[in-house]
Each structure stands twice: as structure tokens, then as C-alpha cells.
Amino acid sequence: MTAPFPTHRQEEWRYADLDALRPVWEQFAEPVTMTVAAGEELEEAWLAAGDDVQLRRVQLALGEGASARIFALNIAQVYGRIELEVSLAQGAAFELFAANIGTGLSTNEIVTNVRHIGVGGRSRQTVRSVLNGKAVGSYLGKVEVARGAQQTDAEQSVKAMLLDRGATANCKPELEIFADDVKCAHGATVGELDAMQLFYAESRGLDPASARALLLEGFVTGLWDSATDGDAICAAARDALRRVV
Amino acid sequence: MLEITNLHATVADKPILNGVSLHVPAGEVHAIMGPNGSGKSTLAYVLAGRPGYEVTEGSVTFTPTRHCEERSDEAIQSAAPDAGLLRSARNDGEALDLLAMEPHERAAAGLFLGFQYPVEIPGISYLQFLRESLNSQRRSRGEAELSAAEFIKLAREQAAQLGMDAEMLKRPVNVGFSGGEKKRAEMVQMGIMSPRFAVLDETDSGLDIDALKSVGAGINRIMRAPDKGVLLITHYQRLLDYVEPDRVHVLNAGRIVRSGGPELAKELEREGYAEAAA
User: Fold this and answer.
1) How close A197 comes to chain B (CA, Å)?
2) Which DSSP letter does residue B93 get?
3) DSSP secondary structure string, B180-220?
4) Where are chain A's structural domains?
5) Is residue B79 predicted with pLDDT exceeding 90?
6) What is the Cα–Cα distance from A127 to A171, expressed in whole angstroms?
7) CA dihedral defined by B205, A196, A125, A119, rounded to 10 degrees?
8) What's the rounded Cα separation, in Å, for the pair B123 and A225?
9) Which pLDDT tens digit goes with each residue over B216-231?
10) Which residue in A has a C-alpha nearest to residue B128's C-alpha?
11) What pLDDT does B75 receive?
């Protein structure tokens, strides 16, 4: 039996493009479950296929001391959604590096729920959005620290670059903490390229337009500097950026 | 080659430079020394055109001089068979109003700023950054662009000359580099760009003795030429042991308060700025 179709009243679907979702809902209603056993490591790069509407709904369970690194590119041209529910047992580590690249009327969103269940878990979520036209790019990230999950270290960094006045970025980090010895940081910015980086590039001979294009590329592809093999996802991101810049 | 006349500049409406006048002829290395807050870095940024650094008075004329010697740098020669065109396209002999130019135009005209704090650019490899920068300069000078292979050869050679592992050039610009590695990388950039005039802002800070030696040797190799000039900004005399300046100037409270030969640097080291600049 298919799960009920979501509505905008549900916080995690608030910015979703439900019209685009309706025809494909049955296919995606049931999330994919992934498990990383104790002490094991997982690294995945999620490149978008060419479909106009793309959903990826994943439940990821990390065992004791397990680690997962997810590199994701969210560039569907109508509606793209990456939804991740992660649970971390004691000493587990989770890293997400994801980008929304949107153009025209597209809606791209990354929705996460990271639950620190065991002691000493570590999570890092880094999300970058580049949007033009009337595109919408969202990050809704909830971090839950369960009772007793002391020494949790959670971080969310969200930055968005709007290239046109009509583009919209939604950044919503959310914390729910039931332990008293934890570190939970979050930061969100929407705006301009770094002025010092621009000057540095121009001082080397790049004209302002080329410097901006290069820095914008770095803004996104910098997400994958630590990927074991980031070439494919970088190339895909560059292609997507060419449509946007 | 570089003529600074009565230069006044403000940063966030605060006056920092209060009438700097300085002439660096072609073929010379001039050192600027001075205490913290005297305006040394501001001078460097004003010359390179950093936004927010307002010139309120004065002028800077940059005259890239005619080149008469064969270039010793074979990498450039092999990479740029049209070196003759290169020279003429650089406006040889023409006096340029530096302050009227955009930062990238200054770079294309042959000005290079070695940053005191080189900037990190995640996501962009050094190779990509420098190749795009150099080719952008070459395009605006009407020169042919370097192919990827030509550029990599040039970059490898420059890295090797400065004792930097060429593999580091595959990494994102300055990300994860130590302070010393960043400074060394600035000099590799200078070698690749082969500028006519270099302003080096505390290139010696953060370097250990070995790095200081190789950076000093790099400055001499790349910039010691009859048609080139250097403005070397430093706190300490130690870099000047390796790159001997033709002139030394003391900057204090936004003005040049003393000028002299290389012996002035040694006097400053001995007696301190307060004494020497009094």
C-alpha cells in the first residue's frame, strides 16, 4: 500500500513541487534502506540522471563506529529532491556534501533528518545552492540528539548564491537536543561571492566575469575536494553550472 | 618604471597613505620597510587595485620598459614563440596610468602582487586557476593561449625551480597549504606569469630558513633583469640577505621618512624603526 501523498502542511514538504511529484509518487513513496555495519565505511556519489523529476529517498543506518560520506548533486530541471534519514550509533560518522543547482522554474531541495542515537557521533552537512531565474533551492536539515547521546558533534553549513532577483533559497537548519554535553553548530548565508577571492583572481589577470564564473564553479565543486573519485560529479556539476551562469 | 607621486589613500574613510612618493627604475629592487600599521600592505593593495582602497590624491605611472635581452627562461620561450609580439603587446615604453586600470588590466600589463595572505579557493585546482589566469592575460595582450600541455610543462618547471612538489598544483588553490607553502606557491605563480614588475608583500613571513633561501633565489631568478622591477615589502632584514635591494625606504605613518642604500636595512635591524625613522 502506498504511503499517503504529502501536503505542503507537512514541514518537510513545505517547499516541494507537489504537482511535479504526483505522477511519480508511487514509484518513490517507499524510501530505500541502507545499512552500514559496525566499523564499516561507505562512500557514495549521487549524480542525477537526466530526468526532469528526480527523487531520492534514503534511510541510512550507521552502526557503531561506522562512517558514511555522501556526495550528492541535485540538478533536476523541474523538481529534484534528496531526502535522507540518518541514524548514528555510538562513534559513527556521517558526512553529506550536496549541491542544488537550479535554473528557470526548477525546485531542488535537500531534506535531512540526522539522528544521533549513540555517544560520540559526528555529523557534517555541507550544502551549496546556485540558483538563477525563478528557481527555488532549499535545505531543510534537522539534527536530533537523543537523550544520552553525549559528545555528539554536529555541524551544518549552508550557503546559497542567487544569480537573479527572482531566485529563492530556503535554508532551515533545525536542532532538537536532549543531551547536555554536545556540540551542534550551524551556519547559513545567502549572498555574494567572497570579495577577497574575487580580488585575488582578478589580480592574477582574470576579468571580473571570468573570475565570477570560476569562483562559482569552485563554490560548488569545492564540495567534492575530499571525494575519493570526484571527477564524475565535478564534471556533471560543471555542465549544470554552464546552464545556470 | 614605477613612479609613485604624492599618493594618498584611505581605507573605510581612514587615511592610511599620506603622500607616498617613490621611483623604482627598471632593473632595480627596492625594499620598503616599516613598523606594523605604517601602510605597507595598503600601498601594495592600492598598486594592485583592491576594491575599498580609495586613492584620494596623487598618481602612479607604470612604464613597462623595452626589453633588449634574450630571455633566459626557456619554458616561456618554447611556450611563446611569438615573444617579440609579446613585448610589443605589453605596451613597451608607454606610460600607463595605473590607478585608472582594473586589477586584471594591471596584471595583463605586467604587474604582479605577491599576497601577504594568499587566498584559498576551494574547488579550483592551482593548475586550472593559473592556466585560466595566464591565458586571460595573454588574450588581452593579443597573444596565443597556451595549450593544457604547454601550460603544465611551464608550471612543472616553475614548481621544480622553487622546490615545490608539482603534485601540489593539482590541489585546490592554497587549500590545506601551510603558511610557507602558500608563500612558495605565490612565487611559483610569479614564475608562471613572468611579470614585468612585482610587488611582494611580506613574502618572507611564515618561511623557514630553507624556504627563505629558495624564495629569495626565485625572486632573483624571475625578477632580476634589466627590464624588470621589484618592490619588496618586509618587516625584517633577513630576506634582504638573499635579495639585495638597490634602495631601501622606510615607511612610517603613510609616508616615506627615509631612503638609503642596502646598509639602511642593516641599520634598521640594529637600531629599530623608532630610532632610524626619527
Assistant:
1) 6
2) T
3) HHHHHHHHHHHHHH--SEEEEESTTTT--HHHHHHHHHHHH
4) 11-192
5) no
6) 10
7) 30
8) 6
9) 999 999 999 999 999 9
10) A214
11) 45
- Residue B40 near residue B32 (C-beta atoms within 8 A): yes
Instruction: Name the burial class of residue B92, with classes exposed (0-12), middle (13-18) and buried (19+) by CB atoms within 10 angstroms of its CB.
Output: middle
Amino acid, single-letter form, for residue B50: R
Between the alpha carbon of residue B72 and those of residues B69, B78, B82, B194, B244, the distances in Å are 9, 11, 15, 12, 21
Q: Which residue of A has its CA nearest to B193?
A: A204
Cα–Cα distance for residue pair B208/B203, rounded to 1 Å:
12
* CB neighbours of residue A209 within 10 Å: 9
| pLDDT tens, position by position, B130-139 | 999 999 999 9
Q: Would you place residue B276 in the very low, low, confident or very high pLDDT band (cuts 50, 70, 90)?
A: low
Place of cell 557514495: A44
Which of A197, A205, A218 lies nearest to residue B137, judging by beta carbons? A205
Q: Say if residues A157 and A127 touch (Cβ distance below 8 Å).
A: yes
Q: Are B96 and B109 in contact (CB under 8 A)?
A: yes
Centroid of chain to Cα B85: 23
Half-sphere exposure of A208 (CA within 13 A, CB side): 8
Residue ranges of chain A whose pLDDT lies below 50: none
**Any chain A CB within 8 A of the CB of B268?**
no
CB contact under 8 Å between B124 and A218, yes or no, is yes
Contact B136 A214 (CB under 8 A): no
Pick from A157, A153, A155: nearest CA to A179:
A153
Q: How far apart are CA B247 and CA B27, in angstroms?
A: 12
Pick the CATH number of B2-276 from 3.40.50.300, 3.40.190.10, 3.30.70.2190, 3.30.70.1110: 3.40.50.300
